[in-house]
Design goal:
By secondary structure, the chain is an alpha/beta fold. It has two domains: about 45 residues, no CATH class; about 70 residues, Nucleotidyltransferase, domain 5 (2-Layer Sandwich). The chain has three helices and five strands. The chain has a five-stranded mixed sheet with strand order 3-2-1-4-5. Strand 2 and strand 3 form a beta hairpin. The termini are far apart.
């Protein structure tokens, strides 16, 4: 039987390339698995369904469903008077409009409120409706424009 000799001092070489490959694979795996968020719930929509598979964190709280895509308030001129129309119904004053918008916003949704004045509506009435919408708690109040 031959005994190993201790006088042969060989160098031990550690290859770094396979270790770096393993580290990158682990990094890719952890980044990929940590981003399992369903993009359907990032933007609120009434069409978004609960996913069959994926992250369980999104199932704890259901996403807010917007009952209204947008709220259109029309300002019309009828018999020389400015009429406010909300959801196809005539509203008598800006205070009543503010109360109705506050009811919608109290549901927990924030749809944009679009004010659509006719050509002959004065600016003070349009600003009055704008102020009523902002006082009701609407974050996005926009004016509709017409393309000429």
């Amino acid at each position: 039987m031959r005994l190993p000799s201790h006088d042969q001092a060989g160098t031990l070489e550690v290859k770094m390339t396979p270790m770096i490959d393993v580290v990158f694979l682990l990094l890719i795996f952890f980044v990929w698995t940590s981003s399992f968020e369903t993009p359907e719930f990032d933007l609120p929509s009434s069409l978004a369904d609960v996913p069959a598979a994926g992250s369980q964190a999104n199932l704890d709280q259901p996403p807010p469903v917007e009952a209204f895509d947008e709220i259109v308030v029309k300002l019309l001129i009828r018999d020389g008077l400015t009429v406010i129309e909300f959801g196809g119904q005539r509203i008598e004053s800006a205070d009543e409009l503010q109360a109705r918008l506050a009811e919608v916003i109290a549901l927990g949704v924030q749809p944009p409120v679009i004010i659509d004045p006719e050509d002959l509506v004065t600016m003070d009435r349009a600003v009055e409706v704008y102020d009523a919408a902002r006082s009701a708690g609407a974050d996005r109040v926009l004016y509709a424009t017409r393309v000429e």
